[in-house]
Amino acid sequence: MDEKSARREIVQIGNLMYERSYVVSSDGNISVRLDDGRIVATPTMTCKGRMTEDCLALTDAEGKPLAMHLLIYQERRDIKAVCHAHPPHGTAFAVAGLAIDQPILSEVILTLGCVPLASYGTPSTDELTEAMRPLVKHHNALLMANHGAVAYGANLWQAFDRLETLEHTARIAILSRILGGSKNLPTDAVEKLINVREAAGYLGEGARCQACGYLHETRLACPTGDRPEIANYAKSSTNGESRISLTREELVELLSQAVTLKN
Ligand SMILES: [Zn+2]
């Protein structure tokens, strides 16, 4: 993409992120990698809903200000745009120490895959980028513990769409818990969706190597053999404890079984 189009799209996406409350005040940042390798990025301390095309900064690929963005561009040659924000429902998962990794929505499995949680690191430091590094290769969106979300894509609209899907999924997951809990798709349905997304070219075989829970339950092999059992991910998603969640019916069933056994 050329610089002029990148500046125009960044302002447009900044407005959308602000209107949708994915960012408030001067939160978040957006960048685009140009055809010549330079990066156009949003300035710090500026509201993303009130930017102008000439307030955006141009850096080279070694530039310092956006360590998180540079990490993603370094790890993924296919990525040309990054959106970082604090969308409330996605960020609630990040604050609760949870990944968005349950197979509850067919479209999300098809288009985004699961969203892991990188352990906490101080923003703008190596702590944060090192926590993210092992997750960037096989995922297109990440949560950062006690901070927010980042999504990236082959162009800025794809990066924004992925951020929006992340937030929408988190919102539905939270609402379904209020209604008594979500029901996961069965493993064979997940396998079929993964086959469909690969045949359609939505996500490649590399996405089988995602760190999230539900892909581990499928029989589909990870082509690189490095399906990550990532310490950061496992530790921060469960806080070192194994959690079990039951629906009300399952709990009643379990208790009545216990009572029957006692008698
Ligand atoms: Zn942030």
N- and C-termini, Cα separation: 72 Å
Uncertain runs are: 230-243
**Helical residues, percent:** 40-55%
Broad structural category: alpha+beta
What small molecules accompany the polymer chains? zinc ion
What strand line-up does the widest sheet have? 3-2-1-4-7-6-5
Q: Could you state the order of secondary-structure elements as H and E? A: HEEEHEHHEHEEHHHHH
So how many helices?
Answer: 10
What would you say this structure looks like, in words?
- With 263 residues, the chain is an alpha+beta fold.
- 44% of the residues lie in helices and 11% in strands.
- The protein has 10 helices and 7 strands.
- Strands 3-2-1-4-7-6-5 form a 7-stranded mixed β-sheet, sandwiched between helices.
- The protein is globular and about 70 Å long.
- The termini are far apart.
- About 5% of the residues have low confidence.
- Bound molecules: zinc ion.
- The site of zinc ion has 7 residues, from loops.
- Zinc ion (ZN) binds next to loops.
